[in-house]
Design goal:
It holds the Pfam family K_trans. The chain has helices at about 15-35, 40, 50, 65-85, 100-110, 140-150, 150-185, 195-210, 220-245, 260-265, 270-275, 275-280, 285-290, 295-325, 335, 345-375, 395-415, 415-445, 450-475, 475-510, 515-525, 545-555; strands at about 385, 395, 530-540, 555-565, 575. By secondary structure, it is mainly alpha-helical.
């Protein structure tokens, strides 16, 4: 069976009819990605300005501060989602899979970083292991030998990767809560205001319905949700363009980084603390990479670069133009900026888009947990493949309902988008910071880039994300602790399971049975061979597991042919050897 492009096997480059098939297929996947990948990122205008101008920064609610905040949002969207993720990170897929664990799996293919020594020499003959002649300099080679030699360093690397995966899982909980609460909060702007309890009840009903839809699979959910997000993007683009022209066209000048310098010179420490709100404009960015297994890198790039990015920039520009003339509207900046004539249509589509926004990280959580399970870091769960054509489109029932329960608990417990936003920002920036570090290792050991280029990448994005992360850490007492608690719980589960997996593997390794002994033992047992094929699960790269000796000595008959099924680190897939 031919391999699909998602699995990392490139197709021949020739101007045949197949190129048109691939183009139409990528365009179709780009359309579907709106309903899964970009719902979260596209709904961030609901709460960014509100979360930025809180605390002591309320004393700086003037036109210059609004211009500075928009300039920060513009350059953050440009540098991190567009430059880092779309142009660079999406190229580091592991046979079509994305996310922090995919980067770790990719590293384990090209260096001996895995704590389970189950890689065979024959692996290097596979296409996924092929790369050009070594161009590594002495610095990168020394670093590689150091990492391979010291087990404690490799253990620390695994823990960091697990932490990133746990933060993504925590995102799956927090995203749903903040997106739905932010959307229904628009009802408080209307004449007939709902009470806090009624809003929370409405949000909980919507959340239950959202998680109940997951079993239909990414393909069906994407086709249902994609039109909603597309209409939403067109709506916020139109409203943003109208507000820019109507309220303050000079906001276009705020694209200049000069306004960022002016913003920090006037606000000082309060401006640095406000970055915890600014960073919410890129929440959901990690979903572009984590959801890569459900789509293709080209489809995700097309959707973001040509639709999502320009719509978001124009919306933030228009919202800033409105606030520069109506600073008192900052607590309800998005809904107040909507013209009265189109308020209700935009409110309805905003509510629907916020519901869809939760889909991005929920789907990414399924992919991350599948990868964790493949690397022996998560308990076995039922994985349902919901597509016949794309292997990465999956659904995990147990995880879906656990996420729903935790999400409802957070929604009922906090009832405040600002506090939930603090937890959201911390989880988001932690994952991005870890991804940057792993991308540096991928650049050195997989892509074999010059160490100077890799260092420049780490310094640029490490500095930007480090500043944002430091601002998010300040808000740990104001809700940020939720991300730490959730990630800590999942981290303990993963570490304990991986420890048990290593112990089991080492036991099998030291007690494996020679195949010649079994072949010589067969005739003396008088075992009846029956027609058929038997498959024996094993994690050993070579040799026969000890459990097989019990199998052949107890049943009265065994199949005529027996094969061993070896679970390998192969993009979360099972390979028959």
């Amino acid at each position: 069976m031919a391999m699909e492009p998602e699995f990392g096997i490139s197709t021949p480059r020739n101007p045949s009819p197949y190129s048109w098939v691939n183009l139409s297929r990528n365009l179709m996947l780009a359309y579907q990605s709106f309903g899964v990948v970009y719902g979260d990122l596209s709904t961030s205008p609901l709460y960014v300005f509100k979360s930025t101008f809180i605390g002591k920064l309320q004393n700086h609610q003037d036109e210059d501060a609004i211009f500075g905040a928009f300039s920060l949002i513009f350059w953050t969207l440009t540098l991190i989602p567009l430059l880092k993720y779309v142009l660079l990170v999406l190229s580091a897929d592991d046979n079509g899979e994305g996310g922090t664990f995919a980067l770790y799996s990719l590293l384990c293919r090209h260096a001996k970083f895995s704590l389970l020594p189950n890689q065979q020499a024959a692996d290097e003959e596979l296409s996924a292991y092929r790369y050009g002649p070594s161009r590594q300099g002495p610095g990168s080679s020394s670093l590689k030998r150091f990492l391979e030699k010291h087990k404690k360093v490799r253990t620390s690397l695994l823990i960091v990767v697990l932490l990133g995966a746990c933060m993504v899982i925590g995102d799956g909980v927090i995203t749903s809560a903040i997106s739905v609460l932010s959307s229904v909060s628009g009802l408080q702007v209307t004449e007939h205001k709902l009470t806090e309890g009624e809003l929370v009840l409405l949000a909980c009903v919507i959340l239950v319905g959202l998680f109940a839809l997951q079993h239909y699979g990414t393909h069906r959910v994407a086709f249902v949700f994609a039109p909603i997000v597309i209409i939403w993007l067109i709506s916020i683009f139109s409203v943003g363009l109208y507000n820019t022209i109507h309220w303050n066209p000079k906001i276009v000048l705020a694209i200049s980084p000069h306004y960022i310098v002016k913003f920090f010179s006037e606000t000082g420490k309060e401006g640095w603390v406000s970055l915890g709100g600014i960073l919410l404009c890129i929440t959901g960015t990690e979903a572009m990479f984590a959801d890569l297994g459900h789509f293709t890198s080209l489809s995700i790039r097309l959707a973001f670069a040509f639709v999502v990015y320009p719509c978001l920039v124009v919306q933030y520009m228009g919202q800033a133009a409105f606030l520069s003339k109506n600073t008192s509207s900052i607590p309800n900046s998005f809904y107040d900026s909507i013209p009265d004539a189109v308020f209700w249509p935009v409110f309805i589509i905003a509510t629907l888009a916020a519901i869809v926004g939760s889909q991005a990280i929920i789907t990414a959580t399924f992919s991350i947990i599948k990868q964790c399970h493949a690397l022996g870091c998560f308990p076995r769960v039922k994985v349902v493949h919901t597509s016949k054509n794309i292997y990465g489109q999956i659904y995990i029932p147990e995880i879906n309902w656990i996420l729903m329960i935790i999400t409802l608990a957070i929604t009922i417990g906090f009832q405040d988008t600002t506090l939930i936003g603090n937890a959201y920002g911390l989880a988001c920036m932690t994952v991005m910071f870890i991804t940057t570090g792993l991308m540096g290792l991928v650049g050195l050991f997989v892509w074999q880039r010059n160490i100077i280029l890799v260092t420049a990448f780490l310094l640029l994005f490490g500095f930007i994300e480090g500043v944002y992360l430091s601002s998010a850490l300040i808000k740990v007492p104001q809700g940020g602790w939720v991300s730490l608690v959730l990630s800590s719980v999942f981290l303990v589960i993963m570490c304990v399971w991986h420890y048990g997996t290593r112990k089991k593997y080492n036991f099998d390794l030291h007690n494996k049975v020679p195949l010649r002994w079994i072949l010589g033992l067969g005739p003396s047992l008088g075992i009846v061979r029956v027609p058929g094929i038997g498959l024996i699960y094993s994690e050993l790269a070579t040799g026969v597991p000890a459990i097989f000796s019990h199998f052949v000595t107890n049943p009265p008959s065994i199949p005529h042919r027996i094969g061993f099924c070896l679970c390998k680190i192969c993009s979360g897939t099972l390979c028959l050897i």
